[in-house]
Write a structure and sequence with these properties.
The chain is α/β, with parallel strands linked by helices and 636 residues long. Helices cover 31% and strands 24% of the residues. Helix 1 crosses helix 2 and helix 10 crosses helix 11. It is globular. The N and C termini lie far apart (56 Å). The structure holds 5'-O-[(S)-butoxy(hydroxy)phosphoryl]adenosine.
């Protein structure tokens, strides 16, 4: 990345102005000077938010892996691309150079081809954070297959839903995974999922925990021997800038998860450019993002953004607490990490354990700290700033979404003065706006409203796989000619943004985006349960936790309630995964409803938050009498 490295606030404002006065010229220059294109574009941008349709760099040809790997081979062949830090600190870290990465990706790509995978086919990847996860993802991109990485904490049912929604034909997994002191039987979960996935013809299995697993003949193959035999050359499939690169599922407030589709050219340009400028990455820095590649943060800022810049990026298999709460800092010291990017929930969990774990390690290499996934509260911000950054490494509180592909609002470290809990200013090229309850844009500062984006940016998702109508309804129908984020925000007196949280039925728990509807659906499958409603309530570590109000059927009323609670969380674990378990469950005789039968979550939310002073007018409810009963029995 040579162009436009922003040095100071004045320059930021100047470049920002240019980027919104003439976005096409701006992005064209970035694209031209910093990437390897097999053919340049015919149009920089065509867009229409009412269809909606957005195309960046139309007509251009490229392969993103040539940008992430091949083009570095002249100057950085022996430079470390990926440092794999295993779960167990006694196991040696593995350094994978750009040259080795090139060979490994090519070999993997050849294995995929040998199993019949072609351009445009969907490949599901269900792996722990081991090198094969990065390599298989890039191998798909190498041959133009569309990867769909599913976070390996999801249950068999959730995995099957995602495989079937995008009709994947091959699955990559491992025999199992390590998570702290635990071993997880990943292959067992896969076998269960595949009972309902007739489209999967082949399963490639990496060895990680070396246990005996069931291998279905003619379907399941150990990776190792296949990789050994594979050729080390694999020419990159030449892709159109608008060909899909990947699908990544995110929760919606209703219905099935949404398979967000990201395309090749614009995604590459935007993730690489934001990585360089927001993390202030300099040659020979060591960068570490603690997210999982199963989330967008890992796609954009463990893999594509860093590798496009020829960076060294750490892939950490484990958790913050194993073998103890000093592990993150041990890794920072060991690999001399310069940029560290994590989530508020991790910061809060670490802060709770005190500073003694930090004091044992030398953190002086740290230059930039990042935060992502949910609003960072003031206390966590200061703890991070004072104890980890020692008031010297600025915090980039980065606001963005699976749908946006890359960071949208964030300070530029050493350029934008930070302010606790504020994501501060829009990144170059991003045009946020706030909308009031009448659907009108709010001008001026010291205002709050619903956060929208007025103009396309290169890495925005182009559609929802198989459901363009839902894409239109979810993001482009609330307000005319705007992308609606689903978040509320305020703008302070100098124009800094603070994200206040979701304004829809999505709840962010420990940085994981959870829709209430799928959880309610899971609970309602229980034969003793009539209906349920899930809301979020503040939690000191998770940010939000889940509170479930559950009404039993007549037949359920003589059941033992503590056993029922266990069964409810068991159902949720099976259908979605342990991340969606409820912290509190309250049995109710009824749920407050409007006259049209809609559950009034606003009231339930207030009760869960222990704020019942102002419930508003409840007299118009269908069943106002149930409210007092719910209040009386809450939080028991
Ligand atoms: C939602 C998107 C983007 C990668 C991780 C999450 C919330 C994200 C912040 C932040 C306040 C944030 C928003 C957003 N969020 N970052 N810095 N401050 N809120 O991706 O799972 O698609 O979730 O996470 O509510 O809409 P995601």
């Amino acid at each position: 990345m040579s162009n436009y490295h922003i040095e100071n606030l004045e320059e930021y404002f100047q470049v920002y102005r240019q980027s919104i006065q003439n976005p096409e010229l701006f992005w064209e220059e970035i694209a031209k000077e910093n990437f390897l294109w097999r053919k340049k574009w015919d149009n920089v941008l065509t867009w229409n938010f009412s269809k909606p349709e957005v195309k960046w760099f139309e007509g251009a040809k490229l392969n993103i892996t040539e940008n992430c790997i091949d083009r570095h081979l002249d100057t950085r062949a022996d430079k470390t691309a990926i440092i794999f830090e295993p779960n167990n600190p006694d196991e040696k870290a593995e350094h994978i150079s750009y040259k080795q990465l090139h060979e490994k990706v090519n070999k993997f790509a050849n294995v995929l081809k040998s199993k019949g995978v072609k351009k445009g086919d969907r490949v599901c990847i269900y792996l722990p954070m081991i090198p094969e996860l990065a390599i298989s993802t890039l191998a798909c991109a190498r041959i133009g297959a569309i990867h769909s990485v599913v976070f390996a904490g999801f249950s068999a049912t959730a995995l099957a839903t995602r495989i079937n929604d995008s009709d994947c034909k091959l699955l990559v997994t491992s025999d199992g995974s390590y998570r702290g002191a635990k071993k997880i039987d990943l292959k067992g979960i896969v076998d269960e999922a595949l009972e309902s996935c007739p489209g999967i013809n082949n399963v490639l299995v990496a060895k990680r925990i070396h246990t005996d697993v069931f291998m279905k003949p003619k379907r399941d193959y150990w990776l190792e021997p296949l990789l050994k035999e594979a050729a080390i050359d694999c020419s990159a499939e030449i892709m159109d800038a608008e060909d899909p690169l990947f699908i990544l599922y995110t929760s919606g407030s209703t219905g099935t998860p949404k398979g967000m589709v990201h395309t090749t050219g614009g995604y590459m340009v935007y993730t690489a450019y934001t990585f360089k400028n927001i993390f202030q990455y300099r040659e020979n820095d060591v960068y570490w993002c603690t997210a999982d590649i199963g989330w967008i943060t890992g796609h954009s800022y463990i893999l594509y953004g860093p590798l496009c810049n020829g960076a060294t990026t750490i892939l950490y298999e484990g958790v913050p607490s194993y073998p103890d709460y000093g592990r993150f800092w041990e890794i920072v010291e060991k690999h001399k990490v310069n940029q560290f990017y994590t989530a508020p929930t991790a910061i809060r969990a670490l802060a709770k354990e005190g500073v003694s774990h930090l004091e044992k390690y030398n953190l002086s290499s740290l230059k930039v700290l990042g935060s992502v996934g949910e609003p960072i509260n003031e206390e966590a911000w200061h703890w991070y700033n004072d104890n980890v950054g020692k008031k010297k490494a600025p915090i980039a509180d980065t606001w963005w979404q699976t749908e946006t592909g890359g960071i949208m609002i964030s300070p530029i470290p050493y350029v934008t003065p930070t302010k606790p809990t504020y994501a501060t200013l829009p990144f170059i090229g991003i045009q946020p706006t706030l909308i009031n309850e009448n659907g009108k844009e709010i001008n001026g500062n010291q205002v709050s409203g619903n956060l929208c984006i007025k103009y396309p940016w290169p890495s925005m998702a182009r559609t929802i796989w198989g459901n363009h109508q839902r894409y239109k309804e979810t993001y482009f129908s609330a307000y005319e000619n705007m992308y609606f984020t689903g978040d509320g925000a305020l703008r302070d007196e100098v124009g800094y943004y603070r994200i206040t949280g979701r304004v829809d039925d999505v709840i962010i728990v420990s940085g994981h985006n959870l829709g209430t509807a799928p959880i309610e659906d899971a609970i309602n499958e229980h034969p003793a349960i009539a209906e349920s409603a899930i809301v979020g309530f503040p939690h000191s570590i998770k940010g939000n936790a889940l509170y479930g109000y559950v009404t039993l059927k007549e037949a359920g009323k003589n059941k033992e309630l503590s056993a029922l609670k266990k069964e409810i969380n068991q159902l949720i674990t099976e259908q979605i995964g342990p991340i969606a378990k409820l912290d509190k469950i309250q049995f109710t005789n009824g749920l407050p409803k409007t006259r049209s039968g809609k559950i009034m979550r606003r009231i339930l939310r207030k009760i869960a938050e222990k704020d019942t002073s102002n419930l508003g007018d409840i007299s118009t409810l269908l069943n106002p009498e149930c409210v007092q009963e719910i209040i009386d029995n809450a939080h028991n």
